[in-house]
Amino acid sequence: MEPGEVVILHNWLLHRSGVNRMDIPRRAFSACYIDARTRSSRKSSFSMIFGDGALMPDQVAA
First and final CA of the chain: distance in angstroms? Predict the structure, then answer.
């Protein structure tokens, strides 16, 4: 990848990259869309990002 380029991968795709030799850190963003009824193995729900009861930016810890 060249600086400023973006790649989109499926979350289950195994992938890797070489060592970052730049002084600027790499950034990554991962999004996984799941049914709102999904619960963790501890029976807790996940944060809602869109829709009724969605997570508000001021509720997110810095």
Answer: 30
Ranges in the chain, pLDDT < 70: 60-62
Cβ-proximal residues to 53 (8 Å cutoff; 6+ apart), any chain: none
Torsion of CA 49, 47, 16, 19, to 10 degrees: 90
DSSP type of residue 39: B
CA-to-CA separations, 47 to 27, 51, 56, in angstroms, rounded: 22, 11, 10
User: Per the structure block, which two tokens stand in for 58?
Assistant: 């001021």
Rounded to an integer, what distance in angstroms lies between the CA atom of residue 49 and that of residue 53? Answer: 8
CA 7 – CA 16 distance, rounded (Å)? 12
Give me the residues paired with residue 45 across strands.
39
